[in-house]
Amino acid sequence: MAYQKNSRISPPFIDHNFCTTSAAVTFLAIMIGLSLTFFGPQCLAQEIAPGPPPRLAADRHTDPKIAKAIEEVSPDRIRETIEKLVSFQNRSTISAQDEESIKAGRGIGAAREWIKSEFERYAKDCGGCLEVKTDAFTELPADRIPKPTVITNVYAVLRGADPQQANRIVLVTGHYDSRNSDTLNGTDPAPGANDDASGAAVSLECARVLSKAASNHLRFPATIIFLTVAGEEQGLNGSKHFAQMAKEQGWNLEAVLNNDIVGGDRSPHQDASVVRVFSEGVPAAATEAEIKRIRMLGGESDSTSRELARYVADVGRSFDTGVKPLLVFRLDRFLRGGDHYSFNQQGFAAVRFTEFRENFNHQHQTPRSENGIEYGDSPKFVDYDYVGHVARLNAATLASLAAAPAPPANVKMVTKNLDNDTTLTWEASTGAATYEVLWRSTSAPDWEYVQTITNGTRATLRVSKDNEIFAVRAVDPAGHRSLPAIPEPER
Length: 491
Ligand SMILES: [Zn+2]
Hints:
Layout: H1 2-8, E1 15-16, H2 22-39, H3 64-71, H4 75-87, H5 99-104, H6 108-125, E2 130-139, E3 149-158, E4 168-175, H7 193-214, E5 223-229, H8 232-235, H9 237-248, E6 252-259, E7 274-278, H10 288-297, H11 304-318, E8 324-328, H12 339-345, E9 350-355, E10 368-370, E11 373-375, H13 384-403, E12 409-414, E13 422-427, E14 434-441, E15 449-453, E16 458-461, E17 468-475, E18 488-490
Parallel strand pairs: 4-5, 4-6, 6-9, 7-8, 12-18
Antiparallel strand pairs: 1-16, 2-3, 3-5, 7-9, 10-11, 12-13, 13-16, 14-15, 14-17
The structure holds zinc ion (ZN).
The site of zinc ion has 6 residues, from helix 7.
């Protein structure tokens, strides 16, 4: 192992653009006396000093403005949100949504109206920086939908400040519907404090904190959407509709953070220091040709969702959120699904945040006591500080992504010749000042090495493409990193 490690991290001499091909070097030597200033330093190859390249794990990308913004996340506000959502008694998608019930504060209609009013309050507080919207549709009878039912997703849009990049979208979501032991029961208590008032509260709290920051000291070139969906417990109906709309309308949706069961249930074996981040490996939306390439090149752990999960890990290292992301390389838990999958099915990068250890007596259960065991998803089992930490991690991830340049497009790995180097090319990203090539051993779970490319959109590394997995990401002048883009082989 030691031999492999040492040989693998031999000096990665880096070339930029055409400048280090022998012809270009000769050309440069001739021209150097005549017009050094014209060709300038952007044409000089960057030689990396011998020794191992920087280890990525040592990097922290902490924007103090983002760190300041996430400090505003309030566990007390989150508690108020969760208790308010629980107060509607039953938020099943098939529960009441008529005017009278809304007035009485009962059922999913009342929950929906309250979420809307809450987003509108944040919008007012930030001088109208949030646009509050609904995505409503009628679901026809199906397995868990006994009669035609209106399902309403409620969301707020924080439009990107750069007109050139405002079409780039990052999104956070949680589901505001709940259930008890019976999926077809829309009347008896279904508090859903953890599942998933906690996730809806994360989305709302991110909206409150980031909209405030955007109207104050933070600038996001890209758009952030704060979403709460319904229909999750009936079959992901709300998120399916929303993701399909995003796909049909051609949204440039870069990342989806789904928070479902992030209440940190106060059970003896809970580990409140971590939150699980689930991500799919082989993409649900991969075409036959893409699956063939994944099989050929060992790309099983490099879906855009997996890169998003690694990005969350990077954010977890960079900011003190109070909770560490624990990456789980799997779509979801056994016997369970979630709204991130609806986005995966449409080809979007989406991950799921869930507490470390779930207590199944406190989920999908009608509140009751049996043989000394307390069942039900009640607020008293929720750890509000924990939800606050998860909200901070989400807010830091959203802010980092929305502040960053677009990921490099058209990233290619040149595979014309049999050689032991790696040449990468890509298109310039709007807002980027430099780029970083990341790589790792094929058996490593996360990026290990990073090489900064200070000019140009092409690099050659003296590291074998056969032994490593590569990606390129864009970096803005303030050091915000984009999501990494995996190269496609080009012959
Ligand atoms: Zn749920």
